[in-house]
Amino acid sequence: MTEEQQTTQNLNIEQIYVKDISLETPGLPEAFKQKEQSELFVDLNVHDTPLGDHFYEVVLSATITAKEGEKVIFLVELEQAGIFSAEGFNEAQLSHLLGAYCPSVLFPYAREMIANLIMHAGLPQLNLAPVNFDALYRQQLQQQEKSK
């Protein structure tokens, strides 16, 4: 195999940052009096944007809503982002990296930021369960195939 035929694959984390964050607590202070456990809704989304020269911004968006019946106790919206450089990957490999691997890198940062925000609001501790981004990515691919 010649040097031109060999492609070196390289993925680097260049920067991790919070792009946007919001906390609303419309159910406070009334919720402090209640003994019931509120129902938690978690919505995660991932999107990526090419930045040129093999750089990509990947954004993990998380919306966490706690409700008691129809009443919203709190709402957290977070966009945890990262800039990644990726070279030497074919289109399918790059898609998998940006859609599954990069979000799995960002998730612990998002989980910590959400937990800290909830704690500083005076609410009970919240630890989001781990997420299998590979499985979510495969589901997304299957849905795209079905819609064709």
- The percent of residues in helical segments reads 25-40%
Can you count the beta strands?
4
One letter per element, helices H and strands E, the order comes to: EEEEHH
Side by side, the strands of the main sheet go: 1-4-3-2
Uncertain ranges: none
The value of Rg in angstroms is 19 Å
Q: How can the largest sheet be summarized?
A: 4 strands, antiparallel
User: What's the pLDDT, averaged over the residues?
Assistant: 91
CATH hierarchy, class:
Alpha Beta
Count of domains: 1
Structural class comes to: alpha+beta
CATH architecture: Roll
CATH superfamily, called what?
A: SecB-like
- CATH topology, what is it called? Bacterial Protein-export protein SecB
Strand content: 35-45%
Q: Roughly how many Å apart are the termini? A: 38 Å
Helix count from the secondary structure assignment? 2
Principal-axes geometry comes out as elongated
